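User: Is it possible to get a 3D structure for a protein together with its bound compound? The compound here is S-adenosylmethionine. I've pasted both below.
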Amino acid sequence: MEGAYYKTKETAEEYIRLAKDVSGKQLIEKLKQVLPPDSVLLEIGSGPGTDWKILNDTYHTIGSDNSIAFLNHLKKENPKGKFLKLDASTLKTDKKFDGIYSNKVLHHLTDIELTESIKRQYKILNSNGIICHSF
Ligand SMILES: C[S@@+](CC[C@H](N)C(=O)[O-])C[C@H]1O[C@@H](n2cnc3c(N)ncnc32)[C@H](O)[C@@H]1O
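Assistant: Yes, that's possible. Here is the predicted structure of the complex:
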């Protein structure tokens, strides 16, 4: 699985360095046109947390990742933030969300996993919810 690259502390730190000047700001501006402020939003694959911080300025954003290395980083950098250990393909949570967002994450899934993920996202999305993903 390609996503395995992000599982160690060293590779997570390498990605954090490489992606330090990159964010999904433009995509988030588009999301803001359709998802009202203060909505409850799930971010899948938060990684370094750059987008989580931008999203959390407008939304009640629950970050997530399936990498413990990234989750440790996210919790350390944002002690008041909410983060879940979730795999994008199964999204095992009993919470529901007004929006679901990811940036550069879902291409790590196989076609079957992606299908499962989208079905699961539909189940954990409130009615009239919005999903927003970049690949
Ligand atoms: C290219 S990084 C993108 C990180 C962040 N979204 C960004 O824009 O910088 C991919 C992220 O997806 C996470 N990831 C990969 N496969 C995953 C999966 N199956 N479930 C949850 N997260 C996954 C990785 O741990 C990593 O944080």
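The pocket of S-adenosylmethionine is lined by residues 3, 6, 19, 24, 44-48, 50-51, 65-67, 70, 87-89, 103-105, 108-109 (CB under 6 Å). The first helix runs from residue 9 to 18.
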